[in-house]
């Protein structure tokens, strides 16, 4: 249903930028057997009709709730809160003024080296357990360190198993653009082996003056990494297993 709407919207408004936040299935957290079918069928439409696709999955979101937020029994409300914080960060520059602002078209130009490679990993900072929030000092280096941490990616794919083609970071709150630029340069220099060398200046940053409600500053990460293939491979294997089981059951009948 969702990809049918995308297809219809693309037909009606072919000149508009289409951004999706797509939740892909995971083996550990699943309530529907046919999830791999739905995901496999929808990928074609996401490739052809979406301009930018932010990839999320429940397994990674549950891991963040358990490991980082220290929640013993996370609910779907907790997962939705993480997703909404990321969505708000990605779209903040469309809604609020900033020193280095961006829009969806500029984001696509900076992140997509080839049209079909528009599936992105996303992350958000700060992520802190509720009990220790008041004791944690928010700084640009702290946000940068946490945002690039593989444990805080909202897709169950490890960026250390691939290389970044491009990346973009949205900072929110009162901060110096000079400090933001310095931190981005430090990250690239320290992790140069994780960036492809054939795309120069492939990490961009934007600064929005308005922080999220309840925070003095925050940041959102979007990465176009080759490690996203781990997620596609996992869904493909699940789909193949379902097809095999279906064929076996038909033979038995």
Give a short synopsis of this structure.
By secondary structure, the chain is α/β, with parallel strands linked by helices. The chain is 43% helix and 19% strand.
Provide the fold topology.
Layout: H1 2-12, E1 19-24, H2 35-49, E2 52-57, H3 58-67, H4 76-95, E3 98-100, H5 104-111, E4 119-125, H6 140-147, E5 164-173, H7 177-190, E6 203-208, E7 217-225, H8 229-252
Parallel strand pairs: 1-2, 2-4, 5-6
Antiparallel strand pairs: 3-6, 4-7, 5-7
Describe this structure in words.
With 253 residues, the protein is an alpha/beta fold. The chain has a single domain, classed as Tubulin/FtsZ, GTPase domain (Rossmann fold, 3-Layer(aba) Sandwich), CATH 3.40.50. The chain is 43% helix and 19% strand. The protein is built from eight helices and seven strands; from the N terminus they run αβαβααβαβαβαββα. The protein has a seven-stranded mixed beta sheet, sandwiched between helices. Helix 2 crosses helix 8 and helix 6 runs parallel beside helix 7. It is globular, with a radius of gyration of 19 Å. The chain starts with a helix and ends with a helix. The mean pLDDT is 86. InterPro entries: Beta_tubulin, Tub_FtsZ_C, Tubulin, Tubulin/FtsZ-like_C, Tubulin/FtsZ_2-layer-sand-dom, Tubulin/FtsZ_GTPase_sf, Tubulin_FtsZ_GTPase. It comes from Vitis vinifera. GO terms for molecular function: GTP binding; GTPase activity; structural constituent of cytoskeleton.
């Amino acid at each position: 249903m969702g990809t049918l709407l995308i297809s219809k919207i693309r037909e009606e408004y072919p000149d508009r930028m289409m951004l999706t936040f797509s939740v892909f299935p995971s083996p550990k957290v699943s309530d529907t057997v046919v999830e791999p079918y739905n995901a496999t069928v929808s990928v074609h439409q996401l490739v052809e009709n979406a301009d930018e696709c932010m990839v999320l999955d429940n397994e990674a979101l549950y891991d963040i709730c358990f490991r980082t937020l220290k929640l013993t029994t996370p609910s779907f409300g907790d997962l939705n809160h993480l997703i909404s914080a990321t969505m708000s960060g990605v779209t903040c520059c469309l809604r609020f003024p900033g020193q280095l602002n961006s829009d969806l078209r500029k984001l696509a130009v900076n992140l997509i080296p080839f049209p079909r490679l528009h599936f992105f990993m996303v992350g958000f900072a700060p992520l802190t357990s509720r009990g220790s929030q008041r004791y944690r000092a928010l700084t640009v280096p702290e946000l940068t360190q946490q945002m690039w941490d593989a444990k805080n990616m909202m897709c169950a794919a490890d960026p250390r198993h691939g290389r970044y083609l491009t990346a973009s970071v949205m900072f929110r709150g009162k901060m110096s653009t000079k400090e933001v630029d310095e931190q981005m340069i430090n990250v690239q220099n320290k992790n140069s082996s994780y960036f492809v060398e054939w795309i120069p200046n492939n990490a961009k940053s934007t600064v929005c003056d308005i922080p999220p409600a309840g925070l003095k500053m925050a940041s959102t990460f979007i990465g176009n990494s080759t490690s996203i293939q781990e997620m596609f491979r996992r869904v493909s294997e699940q789909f193949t297993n379902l097809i095999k089981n279906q064929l076996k059951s038909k033979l038995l009948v």
